[in-house]
Design a protein that fits this description.
Blueprint lengths: L9 H13 L2 H76 L1 H5 L6 H80 L6 H16 L16 E5 L6 E2 L2 E2 L7 E5 L5 E3 L4 E9 L3 E8 L3 E11 L6 E2 L4 E7 L6 E9 L2 E3 L8
Antiparallel strand pairs: 1-4, 2-3, 4-11, 5-10, 6-7, 6-9, 7-8, 8-10, 8-11, 10-11, 11-12
């Protein structure tokens, strides 16, 4: 997990605001620059925290799955142990009857003592095998229970870390909100004096404002990305599709959108560089775009591609036209979002 940068103190921001109110134009501009630099750092820290929370959430999901699997295996072993015990009790009773003679000997139809001894020896071998199997089952159950406890402890520890990260993110968001308020206050004061000042400082401010708006790359735009194509989501992330009354074991790594019109325009959800175009098994014609911060978006089921590999694209720029879902034959466009190799649910990233 990434180390977290120390929270920027409010004291510096407040001091900068005070200097801006009392000083000349250059002092006001420098105060604004100081605040923008802090705002850029805090914005990057918020994005890093959210990415750490995403990673932790996925790890917690995997731990929960492993715990459920361990619980299922323990329950199955409990049933096998109960069955083995019942079988062992039955065989012990049979062995006891054979060893005592009793009613069993009467039904042996005159079998000799040697035959009886062979039966007893065979029964003892079977019993020893049953006991060994029972011991193996019990040993396996103990190991599974230990693993189950270890997984639960790891998940509980993850929950504690998650709460700490959430608290840290809330603190940073509060700091960022206060710094934005101070920046707006300085901007209003500067505007009231006619926006005068050093051109070099004004250029630096313009550059910083752009960097603040893009700090954290695509990660800073969670919940604010435009849809790649208009239409309803007909295939959700992570949901297994039901087709013809039978369950298809296919886990979605993205979403499928049914466009409002045939051959609807598919657009880039954010600026980036086209890394791959062309056919891909199961996805039809695709466009793969790399974005800042190690993020990638993939657009599939396209009937036509209008960009080429290596091309820089802006947000909203056309990439191609929607095509058909290869599974259903219906008009569709496929969209996938990844950070590195990890698929992310686009639902939390696209505007409602």
């Amino acid at each position: 997990m990434r180390p977290l940068v120390t929270l920027v103190s409010f004291a510096l921001a407040t001091g900068a605001a005070g200097a801006a109110a009392a000083g000349d134009d250059a002092s006001k501009l420098r105060a604004e620059i100081a605040l923008l630099e802090q705002l850029e750092r805090v914005g990057g820290q918020v994005v890093s925290l959210q990415e750490a929370l995403d990673d932790l959430g996925q790890e917690q999901g995997q731990l929960t799955y492993q715990i459920d699997e361990a619980t299922r295996k323990v329950a199955a072993l409990e049933r096998r142990i109960a069955t083995q015990r019942r079988q062992l009790r039955r065989r012990l009773r049979s062995l006891y009857k054979l060893s005592r003679g009793g009613a069993v000997r009467l039904v042996l139809d005159g079998a000799g003592g040697g035959d009886l001894q062979q039966r007893l020896a065979a029964a003892r071998l079977i019993l020893r095998r049953d006991v060994r199997e029972l011991q193996l089952y019990r040993r396996e159950r103990r190991e599974l229970l230990r693993e189950h406890d270890r997984l639960r402890q790891a998940r509980d520890a993850g929950h504690r870390v998650e709460r700490q990260l959430e608290q840290r993110r809330a603190e940073l968001e509060k700091a960022r909100g206060e710094q934005r308020r101070l920046v707006r206050q300085i901007e209003r004061r500067r505007a009231s004096t006619g926006g005068k000042g050093s051109r070099a400082l004004l250029r630096q401010i313009a550059e910083l404002r752009y960097r603040v708006s893009t700090a954290g790359g695509l990660g800073a735009r969670r919940g604010r990305l435009p849809r790649p194509v208009s239409g309803a989501v007909v295939g959700s992330f992570g949901v297994r599709r039901l087709e013809g009354g039978r369950r298809l074991e296919v886990l979605r790594q993205g979403i499928t959108i049914r466009p409002g019109s045939r051959r609807a325009r598919v657009q880039a959800v954010a600026a980036g560089t086209v890394r791959l175009t062309g056919p891909l098994d199961g996805y039809g014609q695709i466009v793969l775009i790399e974005h800042a911060g190690g993020y990638f978006t993939l657009y599939g089921f396209l009937s036509r591609i209008e960009v080429s590999a290596g091309q820089r694209v802006k947000q909203g720029e056309p990439l191609g036209r929607a095509g058909l879902d290869p599974l259903t034959g219906d008009p569709a466009a496929y969209f996938e979002l990844r950070r590195g190799q990890r698929a992310l649910d686009p639902a939390g990233w696209l505007r409602r």
